[in-house]
Structures
1.
Amino acid sequence: MAKKTDIILSLISGLLLVFAFPPFDFFPLAWMALVPLFLAVGEKNARTSFLLGTLTGFVFFLGTIYWVFHSMYFYGYLAAPLSALILILLCLYLAVYIGIFSVLFNYISRNSGLPALFIVPVLWVTLEFLRTYAPILGFPWSSLGYSQYKLLPLIQIADVTGIYGISFLAAATNGVIFDVAFSRPRRMRNNPLFARRPFTFCIVIYTVIIMSVLFYGFGKLRENGSGQSIMVSVVQGNIPQDKKWDAKFQREVIDIYKRLSLTVSASSPDLIVWPETAVPFIFGYDNNLTQDIITFQKQLGAYLLFGSMLAKDADHLSNSAVLLSPDGNILSTYDKIHLVPYGEYVPLRKFFPFIEKITVGIGDFLPGKEPVVMQTPFAKIGDLICYEIIFPGLVRKFIDRGANVLVTITNDAWFGRTSAPYQHFYMSVFRAVENRVPVVRAANTGISGFIDSKGRIINKSDIFKEAALTEEISVGNQKSFYTKHGDLFAYLCIACSALMVIGKLSILKK
């Protein structure tokens, strides 16, 4: 049975996690935020551990993805109570993963003699990985490692482990604090391997890990990039969502992108990038407006990459990216693969008919079938659309197929002035480090910007302002371990988690 103190401790953990993420950015809190939860679930039964962990998760996700209400209410046209209900259900679903983590942590740690330093990080990474790739509702937003985007020497290890390595380090720190500061070593005396000097053992192992990671990270930061340098411009039109598809403002929207593009063309960029669905019509279907864009393109003297809806057949559209050459020819198109559930398509429609209003006027998009690498004389471009950038496994497929520059185009107007545009932008930092390629980001209302292959933010725009930025970037010149081998680190954590559970079951049977 949970006591009042246990509930308060669980709430504290959830709040500390919230403040570790943008826009608050008190990132050191992530290194200790789970400790109150560990204290709360200690020696509790499975049911109580699950409820306390779920409470922590609910507070955490409510505080970081509250913007879902904004999107549902203002642009999904759902009533406020229904929008709030959907947000609550989503947060509860995501919180279940932390509830399961709490149950497994308490189950494995009880009388096992293993330090939390070993148990916590592998369990945490396992649950984060499952949350990322769960069918339909896979949603890796607010993974623990994302809070550390400012800590550049530490996050360089992501080119081996992916984002999960950073989550592992943060979770491990929580574990070692619990081991050293809250009597965890007394339990470790049940294990002869750790019995004599449990404090020393935890501190030495943790120090070796952190120092090794930092040594690796500082070495990577000192390396000079040797990839070809190119000039890229991004255009941020700042088109209000309620005007974006209004036929009365169609010409005004197009003219804004033309004006801003002519401004950056004076810098002679190799590539100009417009955001997701930047053109307010179906490119290739509306002949007059399509020809207008092509004619304008010939004035720029640069390649143009922009988002548009494309007609796939008489009844279906795709959310796509189009690359035009300087002479106005269509060089390549990419159709978004990972569509947003209940935003771009409605899964389980017959069970949730009221959700249909979110996609009213557009209907379900057809998903793309495979990653496309867009070829230019100066770079091979992998273009991610909207929240595809938050799925590391999908992003690495573009690089593995030869892309040496990542472009992500998005329309974050859906989020309004919430924390989401900031969180969405900073997650791109890890895609750059994981794959050792620069990231170019064009967002309708911001944040647009440039990130180099070491995760350094070169330049970025403000939100809800027109912007036209140009920067020189160096393309990637070799594939990282993560690009070539994927989530081996996460799979190792999953295997370790399974072994710990099996080992505990074996102990109980004896």
2.
Amino acid sequence: MNHFYITTPLYYINDKPHLGTAYTTVLADVLNRYHRLIGYETFLMTGTDEHGQKCNQSAKQKNVPVQDYCNIMAKSFENTWKLLDISYDLFFRTTAGWHKQAVQKCLQELYDNKQIYESTYEGWYCTSEETFYTSKDLVNGKSPNGKEVTKIKETNYFFKMSAYQELLIEHIHKNPDFIQPSYRKNEILGFLKNPLEDLCISRPKSRLEWGVEIPFDPNYVTYVWVDALLNYATGVGYQQTERKEDFEKWWVKTGALHLIGKDILITHCVYWPCLLMALGIKLPKTILAHGWLLNQSQEKMSKSTGDIMDPVDLLKIYNSDNLRYFLMRGVPVGKDAPVSHDLITRCINEDLSNNLGNLLRRTSTMIHKHFDSQIPEISNNKKMEPLKNLGIQTAKSVKENISTLQPHLALEKIINLLNETNKFLEQQAPWKKIKEDKKETADILRTALEILYLSAALLKPVMPKKMDQLLKSLSCPDKWPLEYFERGDFPKAGEKIQELPPLFPKIKSEMT
């Protein structure tokens, strides 16, 4: 059996989940579900990043012990992912004891191999990003992302990241799929044209206590990014004797796919690979950086502008399947994309209510009325072949689009198939033909039902609840449908279609 390992970033817990983190997690879940549908054994890991200065400050502001604060915030992420029907295998928390031990083993190994050294550093520190910058990095006196910085001079430990610059460049050139999309790879190669500096990997406890203690110097904790970046490997068994088989299975043999937002590109595509190379372990297969969700001004949604959308509030209007569908259909992977109530409503009404819902209503109504709710026999009518062939091609295209990590294109193909089927019904007008040719009417409706089955099976990774309802109403399996569809195995002739409530009632604009 083939295997598929995918992760999201670990989300920082200084605030509750927002629509951007929801998008990343839904994308991971959809890709994971598609691979399961195709026949892979899969592993999806998500979780929370719970150390560092921002976390400590947030806990103090709320006047709660920092570990209690972490527990509360981690639960808010878990609850939101449950509402969004995220099916993960591991919810990872960096405060887990086994992870902290694994991080300390890594740090000790790097120190013993003389990859970490002590030095005095003077530079600009950004608390909100937990990152040091040199003067040449600053833009108008702020971090490259526009955040406030403070000048700091202190003694710390440094990782010899500069020693791995050429190895990293070589790896990127030899592995074209390592950083996706390709224009993000070009950004990293552009960054690496300048000399790579060593990475400060510690914080003195006099300034910050909330972190993983440095094993060779108890006066320091490790830089939060070092702690968090190692999770992708420790989560599947790295540095854990009792889980060597898991690490071999998921990391070494399978290779990892990591989803990130483009704003954490440098940490994941430079810092992290250099750390892995220094530890002597395999680099991930692919790091996929997606774009930003934009507001009506075509700017990134942010807390400072007050336009971040709360996924929990959105679910009260659109439900999980509808919101998941919009995020996958309306946001092309890798690109920035606008999000608004108007865009969500239009997408759901046009694709789901007017298209899929309309096809289901038309077809099932006639089956109930004229065929005693029974599914007609398999058709050999030549008129049906073009639509059947389009269905076969659609399933093949969906599989290809998923393999290239483009679910938005897969949905485009499925919606086109449903569009063509609705056009076919308009042309054939079975509601008129039933009066003169019941056999050909049965052939038309049978073909439409087969398209509904195929589409429901292909859409289930995106809309698990509603497509499960549709498949059950047709007594069809939720396995990869191509061979079944080619043979006409489902829906089974003679089975009765179960009554369904409207799956996609139209959303009224005044609701938004």
3.
Amino acid sequence: MFDFLRKARAPENAATAGPEAKASAVGPLTAGRISTKADAFGLAGAAWTARDGVSLARAGFLGNPVGFRAVRLISEAASALPLILQDCERRYETHPVLDLISRPNPAQGRAELFEALYAQLLLSGNAYLEAVTDAGGGVRELHVLRSDRMRVVPGSDGWPVAYDYSVGAAKHRFHMREGAAPICHIRSFHPQDDHYGLSPLEAARRAVDVHNAASNWSKALLDNAARPSGAIIYRGEAGQGSMSPAQFERLQAEMETHHTGARNAGRPMLLEGGLDWKPMGFSPSDMEFQKTKEAAAREIATAFGVPPMLLGIPGDATYANYQEANRGFYRLTVLPMAMRVTASVAHWLSGFIPGVVELKPDLDQVPALALEREQQWRRVGEASFLSDGEKRALLGLPPHVEGA
């Protein structure tokens, strides 16, 4: 019935007709340049995490609980959205595109594929989807490729002519062609890069470093028996304030062996020979350290578009309750990204099929939006001045076709 995943043949006179020349006037200026993440925002003084994708992912996702939870929360919520496929005339219940997306490859299902796609976009600002074609030019499988292994090869007009995917010393080049391109490149907006997107981790990398440093400071404090430091004062018999090298080494060894670490917490200290212990309390900056850590956590959550309330971060009362925060999370973060990604995937797959189809989330099946969708259906249904076709268009439905 359907042969949508087969690329349509070009007209016979296509080879003889000269292509219409349309290109950006500034394309040749950017053709030979691939911007890097270190081109802008250079910082000196403090030790910050490198701007490359591998370092950012290691510091902000693998080594930071706030970034990890934010990425997982967005990618899992977006990949779980029900999808609908329609064109200008009807909504499809069965379609080869739906079959392909539901089982994109032998190792992944739809949710797993889109979760990896969304996570790559959040972590690096770039997401790459590969189409595996058969002998007839139809799409057989879809695979998400790691963004840290991909490099854009721009042509003379500035548009990508190929993508290089490197694994160790091995490299594979995907040559781009008109229409049925083997790679779908989805990227976030970057104001200072022509070929790569901007990651939320890159915008929040200073907050990530502050949060990680605060966690390391807390761990060091626990290793030191969770007590503030102090000073050992030595006064000899004649009032001298210096110890012999042997006395100093012995004291240092006893301190490291019997009075440091969590297992020695609370152990009394035995001082002899004119030694006196003077504890030092926390400074005002130490007392504000936890607030600094919480502020950094809120900045990370803000960069990803996740309400801090959903991540369990205290001190945020932007939303009246958890339900409102969850609705705002879907409306402002999950749905915009899901709509943009699914639209890009549908546009890319249109190079392999005749006609145009639209792939988008089904808003009527999102529990967080159930109340407002019910109100919208009621308002549209009660609008007597609207025709049935206008009501269907307002609700995002295709026109009703008689006999369909």
